[in-house]
């Protein structure tokens, strides 16, 4: 759809945009994965470019006490009504974070699930988030104009759909450019179609052109179909997801979006992930002086109850920090464990997720107590220490929309070993004897053999001082900060505004 491209005269230079982000996770307030890191950091980068940004997220159990109440909230979905309030969680000159406090929905254990089972009212909880964000936008007079509404993942997918459905109700955002970002196509927000009437969504949302997906309602499809621009989190994943093999059934939907679908590589928050100042580390270090990295290695081994003698310190440590789910290739690691455990390396694993993977890793730690340390759970500080203390970082993902840990690893001089998919393929340049500017190791086949071969190769190079130092240096010298990617988002915002203007001109 080439007519949605901004022409110079119309798009021009957009001075300050007002952007409203809606997401189910935002670091440091609520986090289960990379979504939180991204929605935490992108607004900072947009702010640095001069734009005004408000971010709306649910106020979950255990989050720090909210700041001032903005106003009470009453949300009606179908015939039921919920009460709550909107709170300021953080406020700067151009940036605000707003929490949606509806205790019936969010004051419980688990953001999306408890004991491995999705909360049964997730359809209500995230339709409610969309309504709360729109209600906030409609009544917010302090924040100035909203030019862009930017929804993240299925949990915010109803936001653009509701705006398109009820422009007369949501007048303050009706003409805004609508942007939907897909962080992971595997999570589609699918619900039985009775939610349409139960939540009063209107059957016009349950059409093939909007949210109907194999006789269910998909919140993600609602968002994709209703937005002016759709983005995902790496160029490679954008290419992969328009193919039937990697599209999770959405490839046709995304092909139909055409060139309004764009891949923008995530950045990392270099103020939070910086080995020279990271508050979670035992010692700070930089590419110029790596002594601190060895101290972190000792602290890491110690923390995991592993040997810390000279032999152990000389042996490479391979780190894993991951949601323990199929996506992350846990099965490939487990299928290769007998051979992996014979290698001269120590393993440190932090993760939580599917109980069969949690159990399998715990069993391994029990069998190889001096070679494998395992922590099941979510621990931000330990994640940072692994990035700093490990020598290699393994991410054998079956698919990976972007992946942040490989970029944290690069910055921490911890050489990544990855499968060549999605954002991992975009950010890691695999080692080969004469390859220039390699920063890690990568393999293509999703097999235990390919994984094993590549880990073996990495360990051989680890013992060769010069090529290993070159790998570390290369990674540590790279710039993965948000600046360039935030500028890409601003381009997308301009295109979205233009597309919205066209919609209204029709
Ligand atoms: P995904 O979002 O698919 O889980 P990413 O690589 O984009 O993968 O981001 C994962 C983020 O979550 C990183 O910041 C990583 O450090 C963090 N993380 C994942 N599992 C844990 C854990 N068990 N404890 C602490 N942090 C974790
Ligand atoms: C998702 C993806 C991950 C990506 C993150 C942030 O959780 O699985 O690859 O880095 O979102 O965009």
Task: Give a short summary of the structure.
The chain is an alpha/beta fold. It has helices spanning 8-11, 34-48, 103-106, 122-139, 158-165, 194-198, 219-226, 235-241, 251-257, 291-303, 310-314, 330-335, 337-340, 355-367, 380-389, 405-411, 422-427, 448-462, 465-477, 483-505; strands at residues 18-22, 52-58, 69-77, 80-91, 95-101, 113-114, 117-118, 148-152, 177-182, 190-192, 212-213, 216-218, 229-232, 261-263, 317-324, 346-353, 372-376, 392-395, 415-419, 441-443. The protein folds into two domains: 18-227, Glycogen Phosphorylase B (Rossmann fold), CATH 3.40.50; 291-479, Glycogen Phosphorylase B (Rossmann fold).
Structure commentary:
The chain has 506 residues and is α/β, with parallel strands linked by helices. The chain has two domains: 18-227, Rossmann fold, CATH 3.40.50.2000; 291-479, Rossmann fold (3-Layer(aba) Sandwich). The chain is 38% helix and 20% strand. The strands form four sheets. The chain has a nine-stranded mixed sheet with strand order 3-4-5-2-1-8-9-13-14, with helices on both faces. Strand 11 and strand 12 (216-218) form a beta hairpin. The two termini are 15 Å apart. The structure holds adenosine-5'-diphosphate (ADP) and alpha-D-glucopyranose. Alpha-D-glucopyranose binds next to helix 2.
The figure for the number of domains is 2
Question: What would you report as the Rg, rounded to the nearest angstrom?
Answer: 23 Å
Q: What is the typical, i.e. mean, pLDDT?
A: 95
Instruction: Decide which structural class fits the backbone.
Output: alpha/beta
Low-confidence stretches: 1-12
At the first level of CATH, the class of the largest domain is Alpha Beta
List the strand order in the largest sheet.
Answer: 3-4-5-2-1-8-9-13-14
Total DSSP helices: 20
Shape: globular
Instruction: Please name the CATH topology of the largest domain.
Output: Rossmann fold
CATH hierarchy: architecture of the largest domain: 3-Layer(aba) Sandwich
Strand count = 20
β-strand percent reads 15-25%
| Distinct ligand kinds | adenosine-5'-diphosphate, alpha-D-glucopyranose
Q: How is the biggest beta sheet arranged?
A: 9 strands, mixed
Q: What's the CATH H-level superfamily name of the largest domain? A: Glycogen Phosphorylase B
| Secondary structure: helix percent | 25-40%
> End-to-end span in angstroms?
15 Å
């Amino acid at each position: 759809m080439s007519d949605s491209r901004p022409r110079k005269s119309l798009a021009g230079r957009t001075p300050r945009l007002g952007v409203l982000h809606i997401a189910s996770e935002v670091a440091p307030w609520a986090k289960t994965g990379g979504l939180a890191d991204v929605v935490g950091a992108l607004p900072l980068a947009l702010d640095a470019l001069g734009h005004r940004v408000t971010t709306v997220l649910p106020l979950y159990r255990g989050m720090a006490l909210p700041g001032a109440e903005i106003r009470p909230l009453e949300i009606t979905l179908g015939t039921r009504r919920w009460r709550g309030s909107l709170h300021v969680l953080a406020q700067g000159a151009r940036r605000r974070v707003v929490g949606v406090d509806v205790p019936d929905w969010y004051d419980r254990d688990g953001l999306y699930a408890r004991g491995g089972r999705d909360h049964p009212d997730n359809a209500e909880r995230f339709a409610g988030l969309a309504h709360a964000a729109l209600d906030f936008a409609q009544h917010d007079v302090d924040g100035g104009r909203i030019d862009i509404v930017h929804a993240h993942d299925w949990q915010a997918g109803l936001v653009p759909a509701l705006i398109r459905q009820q422009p007369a109700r949501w007048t303050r955002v009706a003409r805004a450019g609508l942007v939907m970002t897909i962080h992971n196509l595997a999570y589609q927000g699918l619900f039985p179609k009775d939610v349409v009437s139960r939540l009063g969504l209107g059957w016009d949302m349950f059409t093939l052109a909007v949210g109907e997906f194999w006789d269910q309602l998909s919140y993600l499809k609602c968002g994709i179909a209703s937005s002016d621009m759709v983005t995902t989190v790496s160029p490679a994943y954008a290419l992969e997801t328009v193919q039937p093999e990697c599209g999770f059934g959405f490839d046709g939907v995304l092909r139909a979006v055409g060139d309004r679908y764009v891949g923008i590589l995530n950045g990392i928050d270099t103020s939070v992930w910086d080995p020279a100042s990271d508050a979670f580390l035992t010692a700070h270090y930089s590419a110029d002086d790596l002594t601190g990295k060895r101290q972190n290695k000792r602290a890491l081994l110690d923390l995991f109850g592993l040997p810390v003698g000279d032999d152990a310190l000389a042996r490479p440590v391979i780190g894993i920090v991951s949601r323990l789910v199929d996506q992350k290739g846990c099965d490939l690691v487990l299928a290769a464990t007998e051979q992996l455990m014979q290698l001269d390396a120590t393993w440190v694993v932090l993760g939580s997720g599917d109980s069969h993977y949690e159990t399998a890793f715990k069993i391994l730690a029990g069998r190889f107590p001096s070679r494998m340390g395992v922590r099941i759970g979510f621990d931000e500080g330990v994640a940072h220490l692994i990035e700093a203390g490990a020598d290699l970082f393994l991410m054998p993902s079956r698919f990976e929309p972007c992946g942040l840990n490989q970029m944290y690893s690069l910055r921490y001089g911890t050489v990544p070993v990855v499968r060549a998919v999605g954002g991992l393929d975009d950010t890691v340049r695999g080692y080969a004897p004469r390859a220039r500017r390699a920063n890690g190791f990568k393999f293509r086949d999703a097999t235990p053999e390919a994984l094993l071969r590549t880990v073996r190769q990495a360990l051989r190079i680890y013992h060769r001082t010069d090529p290993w130092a070159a790998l570390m240096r290369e990674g540590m010298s790279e710039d993965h900060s948000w600046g360039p990617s935030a500028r890409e988002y601003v381009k997308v915002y301009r295109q979205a505004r233009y597309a919205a203007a066209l919609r209204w001109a029709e």
